[in-house]
Amino acid sequence: MKLRCAVVGHGGIGKVHARIAAKYGELCAVCDVDEGKLESFEPSIRYTDYKTMLDEVRPDVVHICTPHYLHADMVIEALGRGINVLCEKPLCIKREDIDRILEAERQSGAMLGVCMQNRYNAANLFVKEHLEGKKVDNASGTVFWHRDAAYYASGEWRGKWETEGGGVLINQALHTLDLLIWLCGEPSAITAAISTLTLAESIEVEDTATLVCHGESPFIFSATNCSARDCPVELTLFSGGECIKVLSRDVLVSGELHHFEDAYKPLGKVCYGSGHEALITDFYDCIENGRHFAIDGSEGAKVVKVILGAYESNGKKIEIK
């Protein structure tokens, strides 16, 4: 019997979740405050209030695909009703909300998953397996993308501390930073600097950031939205005598090329990647078979803690809490 699924937020990424939910489950409800976004669905499954939807529909799983600032309360409300939750990134944007969410997860009999879909890409899975039992000596990562004033004008919540929670770090670069944490381990301290180099007239938040993450496997990370165009994301890891270079579908291990094709095609924007379908089907399988989903609240909170530490650092080395 298919899981009964609901999606809250039917913007770009919400459409991806709705397509996959309809393919692998029974899409029983969609919700958005803008009813015009729901016209392609039967009137019987449309909602504009997510609490009403949760109470009336009681889905097996709800996908949270709303703007960042809404995630925490929506996750907590669903978990409090015993409904399994798959939340888009970031899990939340405020430090106090991490504890609120993790407590709700502990108190609920339902499962919480966070959508870190790049962990499911074939190249990244190969690197994770290749590093099993090995220590990463040091690493680096870059995200050099292009976002302009028109992008930020496309959503009123974008580019504001209160609603987006930050800029390039918490939005565009979060997935790559998460991969570094996944491969290297959670850092214990951070020294970081953020700036707004080209978009100061359009946004409050940073468009450029540099992080030095301290720990057993230290790494540096640079991200910007100021590039003239989107460049390929890159990771470089050193382990023992090996240098591992990671691109989207290619991995170089000390010069030896390994090429990978993902099992699923990208859905939606190119920057979403191809991992959503693999992650969602795994999350559904965990619910149906009583397995623990690896990217739970605690795991999803790790990258948020690092990003919040970067915003607090102001060029000083501080402990990540």
Task: Tell me briefly what this model is.
With 321 residues, the chain is of the alpha/beta class.
Explain this structure.
The protein is of the alpha/beta class and 321 residues long. The chain has two domains: 4-117, NAD(P)-binding Rossmann-like Domain (Rossmann fold, 3-Layer(aba) Sandwich), CATH 3.40.50; 120-269 and 295-319, 2-Layer Sandwich (Dihydrodipicolinate Reductase, domain 2). 31% of the residues lie in helices and 22% in strands. It is built from nine helices and 15 strands. The strands form two sheets. Strands 14-13-12-11-7-10-9-8-15 form a nine-stranded mixed beta sheet, with helices on one face. It has a six-stranded parallel beta sheet with strand order 3-2-1-4-5-6, with helices on both faces. Helix 1 crosses helix 8 (276-289) and helix 3 (71-80) runs parallel beside helix 4. The longest helix is centred in the last third of the chain and has 17 residues, at 297-313. The chain is globular, with a radius of gyration of 19 Å. The model has no long low-confidence stretch (mean pLDDT 96).
Shape summary: globular
Count the domains: 2
Q: What string, H for helix and E for strand, traces the elements in order?
A: EHEEHEHEHEHEHHEEEEEEEHHE
Strand order of the largest sheet: 14-13-12-11-7-10-9-8-15
Question: What kind of oligomer do you see?
Answer: single chain
Number of strands: 15
Q: What is the CATH homology-level superfamily of the largest domain? A: Dihydrodipicolinate Reductase, domain 2
Q: Structural class, please?
A: alpha/beta
- Beta strand %: 15-25%
CA(first)-CA(last) distance: 42 Å
Helix content: 25-40%
With helices defined by DSSP (H or I, 4 residues minimum), what is the helix count? 9
Write down the CATH topology of the largest domain.
Answer: Dihydrodipicolinate Reductase, domain 2
The CATH architecture of the largest domain:
2-Layer Sandwich
Mean pLDDT, nearest integer? 96
Overall radius of gyration: 19 Å
Low-confidence stretches: none
Q: Report the CATH C-level class of the largest domain.
A: Alpha Beta
Describe the main β-sheet briefly.
9 strands, mixed
